[in-house]
Specification:
The chain is an alpha+beta fold. It is built from 12 helices and 4 strands, in the order H-H-H-E-H-E-H-E-H-H-E-H-H-H-H-H.
């Protein structure tokens, strides 16, 4: 294994332009696939073979409306008043009736009929059921429901709309994750004492994540992909990408500091630290692939998607990194 990786590292160093161009071509190819055949997320989770899933499937057959997704309307009266006061009770009744006319709403339970009123009389809860699942709801379903109950707000009530119908479970990537990347850059700069080395480490990790994640998204057109699967792949892929690159790059710089030729150092770093990267990556891939054993579709896709991203991270660290080391040459020698 070490000999093979040594030869691979030296080959990537010598033919750095070809190796770099190849990875750029791969990135372009997966982006093109994502644009042309990529589909949408499906967050409707099922557990085939379970009694609960069989019951839900049967309920959907005999009573589609009862199997639909639900939502809740909460009405709160102002201080010193209650929802049973005539003006507020009338407004709530009108809002419940209007909600029943919203697209795909199968039934609405009047809080006064079901006695879903708080002990102090200030709050009332109306439950409604849609005739479709969350993925079949109209894109403006929440806005339609809010518009239907707006007259109750005009009457002085505080109205909140929520429930499972509007809880997609999607995990988004936002400023918090970007802060994590910035922290990673600072840690790498402190570790290497070099902006070039830190930037190279992060670049390799981002390329691996970009290819793995985009390829996973491209498959959404042919497989059932939940919105959590890309998030898991992103987090794990970025972590292992930085980690695996750090192994090889640290060994390379240590050997450069000892006076070794850059090309020989790239080969040896890939052959030695690269062996640890291969075995570490295989361990993570096997562990993530183990999620398929439970035979739950969304867990299987999550595990295999993250495992694929880790595989790409390993391949990028073993081939693209030595190529970039060739471009950097002796500039990566640590300062005394």
């Amino acid at each position: 294994m070490s000999t093979l990786l040594y030869r691979l590292g030296r080959a990537a160093y010598r033919h750095r332009a070809a190796f770099t161009a190849a990875w750029i071509a791969v990135l372009g190819a997966v982006i093109a696939l994502f644009i042309t055949v990529g589909g949408e997320f499906d967050d409707e989770f099922t557990i085939p073979g379970s009694e609960s899933q069989a019951a839900l499937n049967r309920l959907d057959e005999v009573s589609p409306a009862a199997a639909g997704v639900s939502a809740q309307l909460v009405f709160v009266a102002p201080d010193g008043s209650t929802v049973v006061d005539p003006q507020y009770a009338q407004a709530i009744g009108a809002a419940v009736a209007a909600a029943g006319q919203v697209e795909d709403v199968a039934a609405v339970q009047d809080p006064f009929t079901t006695q879903q009123i708080s002990p102090d009389g200030r709050a009332a809860l109306a439950s409604l059921t849609y005739s479709v699942g969350p993925m079949e709801l109209a894109g403006d379903a929440l806005e339609q429901l809010q518009a239907a109950v707006a007259p109750a707000e005009d009457a002085g009530l505080e109205v909140e709309v929520g429930g499972g119908a509007f809880n997609t479970g999607a995990v988004t990537v936002g400023p918090t994750e970007l802060v994590g990347v910035v922290v990673a850059v600072l840690v790498l700069v402190i570790t290497f004492g070099s902006l070039l080395a830190a930037g190279m480490n992060l670049l390799i990790a981002l390329v691996g994540v970009g290819i793995g994640l985009t390829a996973l998204l491209a498959l959404s057109g042919v497989i059932t992909l939940s919105s959590t699967a890309p998030t898991l792949a992103l987090m794990i892929g970025l972590a292992v990408g930085i980690d695996y690159t750090l192994f090889i790059l640290s060994r390379h710089r240590a050997q450069l500091a000892a006076g070794m030729d850059p090309e020989e150092s790239a080969g040896r770093a890939t052959g030695t630290a690269g062996s640890a990267v291969v075995f570490a990556g295989l361990t993570v891939i096997i562990a993530l692939s183990g999620l398929a054993v439970v035979n739950i579709p969304f867990l299987t896709v999550m595990g295999l998607g993250a495992a694929g991203t880790v595989l790409v991270a390993v391949l990028v660290a073993l081939t693209l990194l030595p190529a970039l080391l060739g471009f950097a040459g002796a500039r990566l020698v640590p300062q005394p």
